[in-house]
UniProtKB/TrEMBL annotation:
Residues in the signal sequence: none
Gene3D superfamilies: NAD(P)-binding Rossmann-like Domain (3.40.50.720)
InterPro entries: NAD(P)-bd_dom_sf (IPR036291), SDR_fam (IPR002347), SDR_member_12 (IPR052992)
Protein's name according to its UniProt entry: Dehydrogenase/reductase SDR family member 12-like
Pfam families the record matches: adh_short (PF00106)
Length: 337
């Protein structure tokens, strides 16, 4: 079944995820969808100093939005901000230095942001990582999971009350079509079992993001939630994490602007707000979150188990100092396995 999933996914990707796939899909785009001004609306974008995040920040700034760039590297973030301000003419662009792999740092930032700012209209969960060797953060959490899943969960959950108070609130999570080859695993969130494969761990995290988005949509009807696949995009992260794939695809990879297009459409357009909350998008269209005959659907019990484990971890991060938390997250502690 794994071979089937991978084969179908790759053949589908060659047709739809490449630059030519975007060019074909864009023929059906409605240009007026992005003929909007968002002056007075605020947008938070994680991982906004490079790649898809930076392209989205630039596009939103050009439409007049207030942009909160959440970045790990201050020098790169400041350089990106200056470029965005210069090219957009919009000075309402702010930098917040946060390492999304450090979960307690994410929670502290989100709590502080709620106190400092009266509203947040759109949250874009873009930051991600693909670490190909198993590493842990300072709290003993596997880094891919900490960044791609738990960081997204903690940031979003903490900011939901602020979003609910805002006009036309939206949450957009940048996932990956790679999640189509993965069925949700609720019994090994820390990737402690078996051999460690960074690509598959990343894909599993992206499946987790889709499940989270569907759950959030059910629980928070005031907010519009969506998750999307940017296609195979030529970013520094792809060239670093998957050098062979990057070299093989070459000019067939999408530009960062093409990769960010659906993020921007979901964040800005009225058309996006009219779609059903909780869906998985590709090139401005909702698409299935499962390949046909791939057996990647999860039972309600499996989803609830995943959500329970996630919330248990989040609560531990919020209540324990780092050394104490790390000892609780050791492999000998059953509830966190």
């Amino acid at each position: 079944m794994s071979m089937y999933r991978n084969t179908i996914w790759f053949l589908n990707g060659i047709h739809h995820y490449t630059r030519s796939g975007y060019e074909a899909a864009s023929k059906d785009f409605q240009p007026q969808d992005l003929d909007v001004s968002v002056v007075g609306r605020s947008f938070m974008i994680t991982g906004a100093n490079s790649g898809i995040g930076r392209a989205a920040a630039m596009a939103i700034a050009k439409k007049g939005g207030t942009v909160h760039m959440v970045c790990r590297n201050k020098d790169k973030a400041d350089e990106a901000r200056l470029d965005i301000v210069d090219k957009s003419g919009n000075t309402e662009v702010y930098v917040h230095i946060v390492d999304m792999s450090e979960t307690s740092e994410v929670w502290e930032f989100a709590e502080a942001f709620k106190k400092q700012y009266p509203s947040l209209n759109v949250l874009i969960n873009n930051a991600g990582c693909m670490v190909n060797k198993r590493e842990e953060n300072s709290q003993g959490l596997e880094k891919n999971f900490a960044t791609n899943t738990l960081g997204v969960y903690v940031l979003t959950q903490t900011l939901i009350p602020l979003l609910q108070k805002s006009r036309d609130p939206r949450v957009i999570t940048v996932s990956s079509g790679g999640m189509l080859v993965q069925k949700l695993r609720d019994d090994d969130l820390q990737s402690e079992k078996g051999d460690f494969d960074g690509v598959m761990v990343y894909a599993q995290n992206k499946r987790q993001q889709v499940v989270l988005t569907q759950q959030w949509a059910k629980e928070n009807t005031v907010i519009h939630f969506s998750v999307m696949h940017p296609g195979w995009t030529d970013t520094a992260a792809v060239s670093t994490s998957m050098p062979q794939f990057h070299q093989m695809m070459g000019e067939r990879l999408r530009s960062v602007e093409q990769g960010a297009d659906t993020v921007v459409w979901l964040a800005l357009s009225r058309a996006a707000a009219r779609t059903r909350s909780g869906q998985f998008f590709q090139d401005r269209q909702p698409v299935p979150a499962h390949l046909p005959l791939a057996w990647t659907h999860s039972s309600d019990k499996e989803i609830q188990s995943f959500l329970t484990h996630l919330e248990t971890l989040a609560r531990a991060v919020r209540s324990k100092p780092d050394p104490e938390l790390k000892s609780q997250l050791s492999p000998s502690t059953p509830q966190f396995v």
